User: Which sequence fits this backbone?
């Protein structure tokens, strides 16, 4: 077990084992995380609302239940942070916006209810881009989250607090959402594991919408095993979400240690070699992942999909149009209460025509068919997530140039499960990243490939030196 | 996208207040719409449309 000073780096899996063996109490862990948040979060801004009192109360309850032998499952007593567009009963869901500062949730979102049922400890609400799109911004009611690897840099977004908090050791588990890459962007920038599940696998009931065609809720963790554990808790049909799927119940960690021998992995290298040129260190990291998995026995083949620009256009048109439909009343009557970035990005949908939206949906169907065809030739796709490590958050020019440079849009559009994680560290000490995508509802295979890379590269043992 | 067109479209969308208070933001919001639209081309032959409900002339 980690020393008392290292409790903040405990994985959820290790914490649960320690609780069950009575070597550690949820109360001790929550206290350690609260102390760490007090020390570090003023620099990282992962939290918009840390609910320490409630977390400790829940930890005491978990301690009593575990002590009485009533262990609910592998997340019992484990702390988790919640992105602040996801409802937690009794707490504001602000979406990081002036418009919703007083918006107290009357009930838990479906995913939060599942976490509570599993005995997880809700630590509080986490920083996001305004309405999951308008950021990172300095003109919002709360400061933007920063990257624990270098607090002068951005942590990705829009699940920025989730990524930053995990990387900083403020909690072992977090929830994020992903419409245009917002789980996988912070996973890439912060060197953690972020999974956008198959569309419909995880309920979006109680989550503020951005674009219903592309909205996903997913697990964010420091390790692949924890990601599978958290996904097991979150996944499942919810009739309150019209997009909710009802696949057979899966145990997502079932294949984790299988290894990649015999698996066919499709390397979509044109995303970062032709469509958008990745920086040399990022490209080198991706090639290293491919070579390593080949050495582990995978059959690596080149796969060609539509150009990234086309995926990005489809994602942007659908996202902008649907987000406009959500925000039009406020943008018309209260535009000044948005931050500048949120206002600009959310008004964009007003300028597309209905025919643009239909064309994008039509193209989306062809893209789905294309990725499905690719995933009949191979078992998993490997590609870039970001094209370079995180830049300085206050460098507006660098942010505007680099933030849109990504290969996450394809799976936002098609709804296939996609996971981003650390590939390595750049010469400047910032995470480089890789993305794996798989068949619908085959998160288990995506996770096993991710685990194979993690096991060889040791990425789960790499943490920023924050003190 | 010309400025007059942006204003007209913004007014059609009910964004008079944003136009008055944040004209630069309205212009910035409008700019991507032109940039992305040209990437998605409809088939020149309606019968070549892959999605049956939108395929012209032959029904479902």
Assistant:
């Amino acid at each position: 077990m980690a020393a008392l000073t290292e409790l903040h780096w405990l994985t959820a899996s290790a914490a649960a084992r320690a609780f069950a063996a009575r070597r550690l109490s949820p109360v001790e862990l929550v206290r350690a995380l609260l102390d760490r948040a007090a020390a570090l979060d003023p620099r990282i801004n992962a939290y918009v609302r840390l609910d320490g009192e409630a977390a400790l109360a829940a930890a005491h309850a978990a301690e009593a239940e575990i002590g009485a032998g009533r262990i609910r499952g592998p997340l019992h007593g484990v702390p988790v942070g919640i992105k602040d567009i996801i409802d937690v009963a009794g707490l504001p869901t602000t979406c990081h916006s002036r418009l919703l500062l007083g918006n107290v949730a009357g009930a838990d979102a479906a995913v939060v209810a599942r976490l509570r049922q599993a005995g997880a400890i809700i630590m509080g609400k986490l920083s996001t881009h305004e309405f999951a799109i308008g950021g990172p911004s300095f003109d919002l009611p709360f400061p933007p989250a920063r990257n624990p690897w270098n607090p002068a840099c951005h942590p990705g977004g829009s699940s920025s607090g989730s990524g930053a908090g995990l990387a900083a050791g403020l909690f072992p588990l977090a929830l994020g959402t992903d419409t245009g890459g917002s789980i996988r962007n912070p996973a890439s920038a912060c060197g953690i594991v972020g999974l956008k599940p198959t569309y419909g696998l995880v309920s979006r009931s109680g989550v503020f919408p951005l674009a219903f065609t592309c909205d996903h809720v997913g697990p964010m963790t420091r390790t692949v095993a924890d990601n599978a554990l958290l996904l097991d808790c979150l996944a499942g049909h919810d009739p309150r979400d019209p997009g909710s799927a009802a696949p057979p119940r899966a145990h997502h960690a079932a294949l984790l240690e299988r290894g990649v021998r015999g698996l066919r992995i499709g390397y979509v290298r044109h995303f970062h070699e032709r469509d958008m040129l990745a920086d040399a260190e990022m490209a080198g990291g991706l090639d290293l992942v491919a070579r390593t998995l080949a050495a582990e026995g995978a059959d690596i083949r080149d796969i060609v999909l539509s150009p990234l620009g086309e995926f990005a256009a489809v994602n942007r048109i659908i996202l902008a149009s649907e987000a406009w439909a959500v925000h039009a009343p406020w943008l018309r009557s209260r535009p000044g209460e948005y931050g500048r970035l949120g206002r600009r990005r959310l008004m964009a949908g007003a300028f597309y025509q209905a025919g643009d939206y239909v064309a994008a949906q039509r193209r989306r169907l062809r893209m789905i068919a294309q990725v499905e065809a690719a995933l009949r030739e191979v078992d998993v796709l490997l590609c870039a997530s970001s094209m370079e490590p995180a830049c300085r958050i206050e460098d507006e020019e660098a942010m505007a140039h680099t933030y849109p440079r990504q290969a996450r849009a394809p799976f936002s559009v098609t709804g296939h499960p996609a996971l981003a994680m650390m590939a390595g560290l750049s010469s400047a000490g910032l995470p480089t990243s890789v993305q794996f995508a798989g068949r619908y509802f085959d998160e288990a295979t995506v996770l096993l490939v991710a685990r194979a890379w993690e096991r060889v590269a040791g990425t789960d043992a790499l943490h920023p030196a924050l003190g | 996208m010309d400025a007059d067109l942006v204003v007209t479209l913004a007014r059609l969308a009910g964004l008079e207040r944003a136009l008055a208070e944040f004209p630069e933001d309205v212009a910035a919001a409008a700019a991507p719409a032109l940039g992305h639209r040209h990437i998605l081309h409809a088939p020149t032959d309606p019968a070549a449309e892959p999605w049956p409900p939108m395929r012209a002339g032959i029904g479902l």
User: Anything to note?
Assistant: The mean pLDDT of chain B is 83. Chain B touches chain A through 28 residues (CB under 8 Å).
